[in-house]
Specification:
By secondary structure, the chain is α/β, with parallel strands linked by helices. It is built from eleven helices and eight strands. Strands 1, 2, 3, 4, 5, 6, 7 and 8 form an eight-stranded mixed β-sheet that branches.
């Protein structure tokens, strides 16, 4: 426990920026740096979360009733299963995270019925997750699956083969499945360089990527409209929400693909 309290957690810092309370002082220090020294950078977390929820809403509207959320993070004000079940009341969701703190909280707050499971696992350990009993129980790989990689792949090094992770899961799911991902986009502005450096210093793992590198993560999958675009512009609820983007909103992009 002390070891976990001594270093910041991606999930806890992300939750803190979104207004969550399940964090330690070391997480607040990192979150306060972004909100204080880099004002506006909280939009990285906010627009990412909003786009994730729009993505799962879209998947559910297309009839998808089972989801795996890779790197789900701490419970939020609104969670994936809550959004999905407004359209698909019997939807099943497996949440996956590599942080024991997140998993413990998730099991207490998210696993509210037999259709939801919380699994402790590293997204790079693809076959281990695929063969996990919780996944075997809830996910029918003969039916379309919604796969979510919200920022998760940004924290994989090149040698961990993030494109290979997506390719593995694309091979596991049937036609009609959807794969959504968001990712930090590398940039040359002072703010982009400072933000990337701070995130990598704080968490010690991962890499921001260029537009071309992020596009390549989808491999041969059919990329759906509007392609890979800043999260705030990814299928906004109305045209009124589209505005001149801040430097922060340009730093995080997302896209969704369909397996044909």
């Amino acid at each position: 426990m002390r070891a976990r309290q001594s270093r910041p957690s991606v999930a806890r810092v992300y939750s803190y920026v979104l207004g969550g309370r399940d964090n330690y002082g070391v997480d607040k220090n990192v979150g306060d740096y972004f909100m204080g020294d880099l004002p506006g950078s909280e939009q990285l977390a906010i627009t990412n979360r909003e786009a994730v929820l729009r993505a799962v809403q879209s998947m559910a509207a297309d009839g998808i009733r089972q989801f795996i959320d890779m790197g789900c993070g701490l419970p939020a004000e609104e969670n994936v299963h809550e959004v999905v079940r407004r359209q698909q009341p019997d939807a099943r969701v497996v949440y996956v995270d590599n942080d024991p703190f997140v998993v413990a909280h998730g099991r207490a707050l998210l696993a509210v019925d037999d259709g939801i499971e919380m699994v402790e696992g590293d997204v790079s350990k693809t076959s281990w997750i695929r063969e996990h009993p919780a996944v075997a129980r809830l996910i029918d790989f003969e039916e379309p699956v919604g796969l979510l990689f919200a920022v998760t792949l940004s924290f994989l090094e090149d040698e961990e083969d993030p494109a290979g992770v997506v390719k593995y899961w694309a091979a596991q799911v049937p036609a009609g499945s959807r794969i959504y991902l968001s990712h930090f986009r590398s940039g040359r502005t002072r703010e982009a360089v400072a933000t990337e450096r701070k995130i990598l210093e704080a968490f010690g793992h991962g890499r921001w990527r260029t537009d071309e590198e992020i596009d390549a993560l989808f491999g041969d999958l059919e990329l759906l409209e509007p392609g890979v675009t800043p999260c705030v512009k990814w299928r906004p609820v109305s045209d009124a929400t589209v505005h001149e983007l801040s430097i922060w909103e340009e730093m995080i992009v997302s896209g969704m693909a369909r397996k044909g």
